[in-house]
Design goal:
The chain has about 130 residues and is mostly helical. It is built from four helices and no strands. Helices cover about 60% and strands about 0% of the residues. The termini are far apart.
Length: about 130
């Protein structure tokens, strides 16, 4: 057995949509405040250790990055990345799938409400 086919490689595959480690530099600490609030909401201390927040941030960013790469891989046949690609990837995790569909429907409701509000303001402005 050849060593290159044994297990996942740490190097990106040729033709893969993943950038190399040298070409992708991420700003650290971008999500720290949000993660601190979320961690507190889930029962952590009001001021969690910076090392803990940094670790959670690394885990979250890695998860989201992997999810985006997988969605991009499924979308390559169409050439366009759609919301349905992410929903397809979450189809086996029902709590995540349900939460995503709930957030997407709330987003649509908010868009419609904003649009209706803008139309009402325009009508009032033309009447005056």
């Amino acid at each position: 057995m050849n060593s290159s086919s044994a297990g996942p490689s740490s190097k990106p595959r040729a033709g893969s949509s993943q950038p190399s480690d040298s070409s992708f530099k991420r700003k650290r600490g971008v999500f720290q405040k949000d993660l601190q609030h979320m961690m507190y909401g889930f029962g952590d201390d009001t001021n969690p250790l910076p090392e803990t927040v940094a670790l959670v941030e690394d885990i979250v960013v890695e998860y989201v990055t992997d999810l985006v790469h997988k969605a991009q891989d499924t979308a390559t046949k169409r050439g366009k990345l759609l919301t349905e690609d992410f929903l397809f990837l979450m189809r086996k995790d029902l709590p995540k799938l349900n939460r995503c569909t709930e957030l997407l429907s709330m987003n649509e409701e908010l868009k419609q409400a904003r649009k209706a509000f803008d139309v009402d303001e325009e009508k009032l402005a033309t009447m005056e």
